[in-house]
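Example 9 (inverse folding). The structure is encoded as follows.
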């Protein structure tokens, strides 16, 4: 008995201590009440907080507690169903198909009540993707002195960022993107900050408060899309710890700063949409950034022959570069061989330029390439054997060139391919009906595509069991819609062909959009069509030869176009 006495005393002591500290089943009562009060101030249309009942708040959705103290240390209520944080959830305007962001139906609405101040041990707070009704960020958030992560992006805040956020001396990650802030960001001193994200915040200028902060740990500065009309201030390049610098889609101008070479740790640089004087020669200093992996210069008017860029990418960048975006940069000339020397390249975008000639076989040296985007150039000739060697390729966009695919075998090695757009090009489909491609498409676009030797639905489409989107408009197809198209389809665009017969032949459980405008469909529109396509929201059958009555029951249909038929 005597040996067990100390253990019994210790157990009794811990039980009493738990009562005094207000710990109930791993959750402190004062913090549980604070969360309940916070919940009362919210409108929760999708019942995301249905688990917020009972005594143990540590088991509630989005709540995390310390295993030792029982304190709430994490509140993560991020709306992960939001597709695009650029538009807030203040309205649900209907465009073309459906709500601009269906994820708004899952957004929490309302106020952030001051009761949250009771969560003094909180180190992670994420309320992104919800909607707080254009109210200012609460000042009391600056009282969370242990906070290391704060994400309020796309949460419908408006007004000035409270100066109190500058008191978050332990903060490492700050994301206030996709809200609307007036005046300047007043962040004061954030000595341990590592990441600042202020994307699309309507800043209009570089935040002045950042110019006098002595950042020593900052690795990420993201100010994209803020309508900043100025040169790049020198203080940006004094933050030598920077690894990711995103300044794209502002209105930056002037000379490209030589001081960018001070950022020796830089791994990503985005200056898209900027206008620098003296052409690409001003961008030449980036050739000395030997850690640079990502370079976005989309729609920077380089206005040069692409061959002249070789000197920039012939040094250490040749080994480090993984993502290169030179779309819309007014490049001209033949597709160069030197691009095949950037062996670690995973993504290459040269779209919307004036490149001409054929794609050289040297492109096949890029064995890691996953995304190749060449649309809207003047490329011609056959799709090279080089492209056919890119076994890692997932996304291939050749839209609006004058290329031709001589046979399906040119794609035979592209086993990872999920997206292909060869619209406005030509393709020879000469494989037998039993050919099984090595790839599984999610999206295939062949609009205005010359299908040889005759326009038809390629029989191998029936093997594409993951195909969600198929675009075959203006392809000259003169046959009926086959009954073997993939049932996985969600978007089927077949306008401006000569397709005949009817459309009741196949069950499409997931089809959302069906566009058959301006074809040669005839006969009655079967009342069973609503059963064959139960998810249909958009149906366009205008300019055909359909007769009979319009089916009355479509459970989800929002748009129906039937003009120029014989109903």
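The amino acid assigned to each position is listed next.
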């Amino acid at each position: 008995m005597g040996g067990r006495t100390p253990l019994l005393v210790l157990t009794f002591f811990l039980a009493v201590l738990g009562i005094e500290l207000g710990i109930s089943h791993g959750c402190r009562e004062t913090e549980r009440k604070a969360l309940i009060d916070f919940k009362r101030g919210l409108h929760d249309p999708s019942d995301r907080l249905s688990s917020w009942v009972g005594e143990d708040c540590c088991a509630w959705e989005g709540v995390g507690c310390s295993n030792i103290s029982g304190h709430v240390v994490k509140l993560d209520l991020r709306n992960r169903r939001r597709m695009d944080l650029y538009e807030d959830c203040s309205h649900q305007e209907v465009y073309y198909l459906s709500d601009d962001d269906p994820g708004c139906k899952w957004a929490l609405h309302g106020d952030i009540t001051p009761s949250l101040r009771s969560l003094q041990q909180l180190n992670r707070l994420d309320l992104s993707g919800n909607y707080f009704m254009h109210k200012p960020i609460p000042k009391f958030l600056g009282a969370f002195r242990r906070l290391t992560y704060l994400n309020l992006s796309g949460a419908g805040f408006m007004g000035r960022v409270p100066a109190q956020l500058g008191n978050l001396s332990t903060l490492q990650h700050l994301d206030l993107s996709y809200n609307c802030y007036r005046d300047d960001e007043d962040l004061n001193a954030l000595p341990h900050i590592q990441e600042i994200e202020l994307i699309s915040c309507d800043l209009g200028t570089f935040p002045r408060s950042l110019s006098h902060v002595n950042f020593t740990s900052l690795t990420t500065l993201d100010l994209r899309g803020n309508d900043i009309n100025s040169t790049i201030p020198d203080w940006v390049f004094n933050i030598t710890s920077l690894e990711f610098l995103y300044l794209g889609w502002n209105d930056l101008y002037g000379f490209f700063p030589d001081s960018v070479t001070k950022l020796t740790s830089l791994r990503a640089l985005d200056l898209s949409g900027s206008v620098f004087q003296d052409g690409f020669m001003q961008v030449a200093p980036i050739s000395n950034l030997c850690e640079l992996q990502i370079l976005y210069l989309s729609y920077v008017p380089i206005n040069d022959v692409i061959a002249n860029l070789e000197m920039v990418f012939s040094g250490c960048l040749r080994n480090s570069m993984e993502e290169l975006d030179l779309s819309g940069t007014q490049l001209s000339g033949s597709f160069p061989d030197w691009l095949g020397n950037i062996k670690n390249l995973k993504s290459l975008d040269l779209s919307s330029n004036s490149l001409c000639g054929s794609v050289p076989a040297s492109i096949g040296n890029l064995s890691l390439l996953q995304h190749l985007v060449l649309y809207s150039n003047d490329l011609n000739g056959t799709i090279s054997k080089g492209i056919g060697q890119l076994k890692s390729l997932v996304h291939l966009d050749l839209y609006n060139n004058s290329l031709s695919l001589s046979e399906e075998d040119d794609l035979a090695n592209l086993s990872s391919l999920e997206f292909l757009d060869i619209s406005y090009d030509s393709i020879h489909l000469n494989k037998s009906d039993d050919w099984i491609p090595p790839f599984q498409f999610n999206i295939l676009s062949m609009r205005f595509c010359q299908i040889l030797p005759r326009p038809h639905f390629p029989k191998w489409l029936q093997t594409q069991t993951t195909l969600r989107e198929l675009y075959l408009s203006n392809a000259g197809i003169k046959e009926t819609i086959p009954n073997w198209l993939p049932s996985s389809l969600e978007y089927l665009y077949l306008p401006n062909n000569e397709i005949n017969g009817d459309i009741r032949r196949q069950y499409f459980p997931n089809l959302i959009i069906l566009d058959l405008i301006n074809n040669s469909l005839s006969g009655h529109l079967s009342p069973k069509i609503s059963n064959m396509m139960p998810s249909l929201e958009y149906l366009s059958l205008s300019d055909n030869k359909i007769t009979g009555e319009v089916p009355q029951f479509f459970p989800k249909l929002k748009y129906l176009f039937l003009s120029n038929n014989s109903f």
